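mind reviewing both lines:
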Amino acid sequence: MAEPTSLEMRIKTLEDIEQIKKLKAKYWRCVDRKLWDELAECFTEDATADYGPKVQLQGRKAILQFLKDSLGQETMITTHGGHNAEIEIVDDNTARATWALNDMIIIQPSTRMEGWGYYEDVYARQNGQWRKKSTKIVRYLEEWGMQKR
């Protein structure tokens, strides 16, 4: 097989970046809509998550259980928005990204938290699909208040 040309490599890199953007969007959509089975597809089996100083998780099962337990109640509404993706393809099977984050969590009937920060992610390609290998939230601001009616 012939070596890929520079143009082919650039196109492959852009396709990988686009797949990673779609994966991150799927992650946020599944969290907000509480689609736990579909969310599992976003992680490698041995993934790690750092969701704050007291929440370091090892393995896809532990991550999903934490998200279900902390965000899965019917009284909990979440919305996550990410932007300004900085994605680096490290090699054929590894990528890194930093994403700006703005999220809101409403705990009905009256509590609201809006947060800002960054996600720092590492991705692994497995069986041709990108998945989250590790994820870390670095928050720099949280605003807690009463939910407006």
Q: What stands out?
A: Residues 6-33 form the longest helix (28 residues). Residues 6-146 form a domain with the Nuclear Transport Factor 2; Chain: A, fold (CATH 3.10.450.50). The chain has a mean pLDDT of 95.
